[in-house]
Amino acid sequence: MRNLAIIPARSGSKGLKDKNIKLLNGKPLLAYTIEVALESDIFDEIFVSTDSDVYAKIAQDYGANVPFLRSKELSTDTASSWNVVRDAVLSFRKIGGEFDTIALLQPTSPLRENKDIINAYHLMKMKNANTIVSVCEVDHSPLWSNILPEDKSLDNFLKEEFLNTNRQNLPTFYRVNGAIYIVKVDYLMKVENIYKENSYAYVMDKKRSVDIDDEFDFNYAKEILVEKFPKLRRIGEKRPNAFYNGKKEQLKTIIMGCDPSTEDNSLKFDTVFNLREDNGDVNFMNPYFNNIYKNLQYIFTENSGNKEFFQDEKFANQIYVQNLCKDYLEHETGYYKDNWAKWINYNTVYIEEFIQELNLVDPLHKLPVFLTAEELINALVLKERVHHYSCKILDYYQNRCGLIRSEDNKLGRILIPLGKLPSFNLAEFPQYCSIIKSTLKE
């Protein structure tokens, strides 16, 4: 079965200017829908229907396809979304694209998750449905609602049987939330009403059902995204001081982390990578980078027991150490570890600022970057370009020689996954160590 995702994103908007590309926590609104469509691994084609070259470029940057632009006739306020979809189906047929289902995924629903798309398709298969549409519970029962006459009279406003009924005793009502519409193509092309026959609801949580129409909705979605990561400081804090001796010409590599674990940013890298002794003060010792440091010894000295390595000024001059994330998080707790990469993807400002920082020390992109956590791989790899994508460091060693090409990641540099002890002991992988050494010499 071939599945087509259609993401409608015409330019302009009366309620909220350029709503579909407005930055939500540093990323265009449109990008959230493209990314969950990619993550679902359901679709043979992810198509953004737009009338704008600017929108098309943004869509393509995030991994969607825009083989043609929408016509002016279908780009008005009054144009039906389903006419846009039918036109897209016909346009794909002209270029040889045939599909069994289409999923209409509106960019104004940025909080839907890939599991929602996957589960909706599973429901379609289980029910052999023509149509699946996402719904959620209404906030307020329509049984307590009515129209008002011009004089605002409440006479007979509510039916008597509901006057003294507690809210929890009222029947549950649902509304179409606009996040997911899945329709069999053959059915879509022969009916006007997709709800008419063999259609079913996929029920979503209310919090994931935000449909952005105005500034209030937009700000509400922003707050919900932040609520997912309550232990994080907000965007805007200063990035930690990098460990860098200031000699560009001697640099061999960039070491990238994601675990700010000391309160004093100026000391965070200093104790692990500086030449001075730490005096046994565990409050200033970063165990995360200390375990990375020990792995690096196999690359630079092949002897983890060499005490002189800690005092080697030559080594210190060859590295630039920095965190991608400038906000504190409880990295070692399971929830935040699992969701860290999502937070980074929700805030592309981190990556953009990090690229600017690295360009100052390595403008020609010659230095490879060590990724010291699987979460970094997940945040930076362009999944649509990497076949059989996996964020596991061991998988990259075994299947890809450990290297991620510059064209396959968001930093545009060679990336080298390098885990921390004890989960990834480089001493056990001499071939990988040789590959890394060769890369550093290039």
UniProtKB/TrEMBL annotation:
InterPro entries for this protein: CMP-NeuNAc_synthase (IPR050793), Cytidylyl_trans (IPR003329), Nucleotide-diphossugar_trans (IPR029044)
The protein's enzyme class: transferase
Keyword set includes Transferase: yes
Molecular function terms from GO: N-acylneuraminate cytidylyltransferase activity
Keyword annotations of the record: Nucleotidyltransferase, Transferase
Pfam family, one: CTP_transf_3
Source organism superkingdom: Bacteria
Protein name: N-acylneuraminate cytidylyltransferase NeuA
Species this protein is from: Acetobacterium woodii (strain ATCC 29683 / DSM 1030 / JCM 2381 / KCTC 1655 / WB1)
